[in-house]
Specification:
By secondary structure, this protein is of the alpha/beta class. It is built from 13 helices and twelve strands. The chain has a ten-stranded mixed sheet with strand order 1-2-3-4-7-8-9-10-11-12, covered by helices on one side. Bound molecules: S-adenosyl-L-homocysteine.
Length: about 375
């Protein structure tokens, strides 16, 4: 009896633990798995031709069975603070954004290496339509496959690995990963999670789970699924408003899962996992930045056993010129209310302003020019 024909599998969609079985299934030798993993995640090959430890025939077989689709760098912009935004072209002509953000560039004064955070996308465009977000301005085009999510990290590795990374056994140059680029990760749960598990795998890029953050606009079913994974990923929730009236104005998703339901899911998540959720709150002038909003936010968040808050001053977006950034005094006053209520809060500095680093802006501008 003939089975299903075995289809090609993008190499970056294969979890390190799956390689042996997949090779055997295709009549290849199981022991090659270790050499393949070495080539993919220690030598960071971008084409099987570069895997020179493997016989030529095998490289040709691998290229056919496990293609490596390296995205094209369509645009790259580097801000004065070192933040670099890349627009990556995918095989089907679509494009996604990713941003690489250094903090404490070379080494900090205590000799620890500086941080290098990458912000990756989970979808092309976004269906969520948050008012201030450029990614959703033109709706969802499609979700990314896991290999396209992993490929963003591979591109960063190719461009940013230092000689030192290479000396240290060709380790990953990134120290942190955030899924805060284009798209809603919980609306593309399976592929995003597959990608993150690959990036986290010890025999893969080996990026620690606690250094990987997912950010959701509040797609409630995702919380239960993530809790059930039993992984140590960090979770951020984009809240942006303390009441339903305001939140529904800014975030259409709130009509489907209003704040009470969202916070109940957060409470449950923290109870099940012991993990503290970080709430993101983008400050928009005259809309959600008042003292009354801050006080209402405190009342809401005090219903959780613990949480953190990131305040993000709005990055102005072309498609909503009516939305503005509050002045610094207003930002600080908002911060003060939360601090006084003993909520652990960070006021984010905007990074990479001069390269339009807010979600979706580079793609939107490039798509418009085309
Ligand atoms: N869909 C996910 C992840 C992508 S957005 C989510 O909503 O969380 C990542 C964060 O950037 C979110 O908190 C989002 O609201 C915020 N953001 C988007 N556009 C912004 C802008 N123009 N200025 C400030 N923050 C923005």
């Amino acid at each position: 009896m003939e089975g299903e024909p075995i289809r090609a599998r993008p190499a970056w969609s294969v979890h390190p633990d799956e390689w042996r079985a997949l090779l055997v299934e295709r009549g290849m030798r199981a022991f090659r798995a270790d050499q393949i993993l070495q080539a993919l995640y220690r030598d960071w090959i971008q084409s099987w031709d570069e895997a020179t430890t493997l016989p030529k025939d095998l490289r040709a077989d691998l290229a056919r069975e496990f293609p490596l689709a390296v995205p094209k760098v369509l645009a790259s912009e580097r801000a004065d603070d070192g933040t670099t935004k890349l627009l990556l072209g995918l095989a089907d002509g679509n494009s996604v954004e990713t941003v690489v953000i250094p903090a404490g560039t070379a080494k900090s004064s205590d000799g620890r290496p500086g941080r290098l955070t990458q912000c990756i996308s989970s979808q092309v465009g976004c269906a969520m339509g948050c008012a201030f977000c450029a990614s959703g301005a033109k709706g969802l085009v499609r979700s990314l496959a896991s290999d396209e999510i992993v490929a963003q990290v591979m591109c960063a590795q190719h461009l940013f690995a230092t000689p030192e990374n290479k000396r240290q056994g060709s380790g990953l140059c990134l120290t942190n990963l955030v899924v805060m680029g284009m798209g809603e990760p919980f609306a593309n749960y399976d592929e995003t999670m597959r990608a993150l598990k690959i990036l986290n795998a010890g025999k893969g890029p080996n990026l620690g789970a606690r250094h990987i953050t997912l950010s959701t606009c509040g797609v409630v079913p995702g919380f239960k699924r993530l809790a059930a994974e039993g992984l140590q990923f960090e979770l951020s929730v984009s809240l942006h408003a303390p009441n339903d009236e305001l939140r529904s104005q800014l975030m259409p998703v709130n009509r489907r899962w209003p704040i009470d339901e969202l916070l109940a899911a957060c409470r449950e998540y923290t109870r099940e996992t012991g993990r503290v959720i970080t709430f993101e709150y983008t400050l928009v002038k005259g809309l959600n930045d008042s003292r009354a909003c801050a006080e209402e936010l405190v009342r809401r968040l005090k219903t959780l056993p613990s949480c953190k808050v990131n305040l993000i001053p709005l990055s102005p977006v072309d498609h909503r010129p009516d939305l503005a950034t509050p002045d610094e005094a207003t930002q600080l006053a908002f911060l003060d209310v939360l601090m006084k209520a003993r909520i652990q809060t960070m006021l984010r500095r905007s990074r990479g302003k001069d390269v339009a680093a807010a979600c979706g802006q580079l793609r939107l501008r490039t798509v418009k020019q085309a």
